[in-house]
Design goal:
Elements (H helix, E strand, L loop, with lengths): L1 E5 L3 H10 L5 E6 L11 E4 L5 H10 L2 E4 L6 H8 L8 H7 L2 H10 L7 E4 L2 H11 L3 E5 L9 E4 L5 H7 L5 E5 L5 E9 L5 E3 L3 E6 L2 E7 L6 H14 L4 E10 L2 E8 L9 H4 L4 H10 L11 E8 L5 H5 L4 E5 L9 E9 L2 H16 L1
Parallel strand pairs: 1-2, 1-4, 2-3
Antiparallel strand pairs: 5-8, 6-7, 6-8, 9-10, 9-11, 9-13, 11-12, 12-15, 13-14, 15-17, 16-17
Helix pairs in contact: 1-10
Length: 360
Amino acid sequence: MKVGVLGGGQLARMLALAGYPLGQDFSVLDPGHGACSAAVAEQLHGDYVDQNLLTKLAEQVDVVTYEFENVPAAAVEFLADKVPVYPPQQALAIAQDRFKEKTLFAELDIATPAFAAVNSLEELQQAMSQVGWPAVLKTRSEGYDGKGQAVLRQPEDLAPAWQMLAGVAAIVEAFVPFEREVSILAVRSTTGEIVCYPLTENTHRDGILCLSIARPDDAMQAKAVEYAERLLDKLDYVGVLALELFQAGDDLLANEFAPRVHNSGHWTQDGAVTCQFENHLRAISGLPLGATDVIGHAAMVNLIGAIPASEAVLVNRHAHLHLYGKTERPGRKVGHVNLCAQSEQDMDAGLKLLLELLDA
């Protein structure tokens, strides 16, 4: 089987690395020169909406997936008439619009912060009485790793925030005084089989995920799985879906979902029976899904901006280094380290050393 991927970044690269043992080959379509997945997959270089390139991709693959949710919907729609595309168009369209996304959560009785769509400064001012202070103003579309957002703490913040977003369609949400951020990765196959990974506890810095820790037997697992399964069934979903949540007391509030493999699931490469990338490929290929159990204790640390010396990382015998073949640049994800150990004490000790190395 040959798999096509829209996007040629690190997620496409890791999909290919997981797919080769399954006997799969890969083609990626990416507008960038030297996409980091090109080392392990054939790259079609050009615009995502170039119909000639899309036709070429469709002709040489059996199924298409995508590695990021900002891929043009027109590209997916065009391909879907020629070759199976997973996750489905409906999931992509909803994930690309934060208001549609929150509205779907509400329809499925998935708790969220208070929210309102706003299309002007006047609408924003009026919405604050509904949403309350403080709040977060976000663009309805695009925005990633904390971009396209502004925190609103007082009326004087409204005009500058609206100006910063350049007047695009937006959504304003109540600011959640959460205790922690978590995510649940769920997988659904073409036959409707569903498996879920253990809840992952996440820490962000400057809006970018920096640390994820697998939390098997977490008290919030059942609620998170229930929410994820509602989404999967409603969307007739196929593939990996990541649902990001805030925990506030005994409640879980949905923030957003990603219709793709996800950064917070990278620990599964070395810390789960079947990693998220292999399970995504199994799902879209019509294969049975693999077990999602954690092997011991697992965590993931992102390498952001700079790459440490491999020797300094791998001196920790519980560390697994994954580099993306990217050049160093501030704020750029250039790799990650998975830490996996049989005891929580060993994992925590390794995590402490790694974080000290990266902060040095």
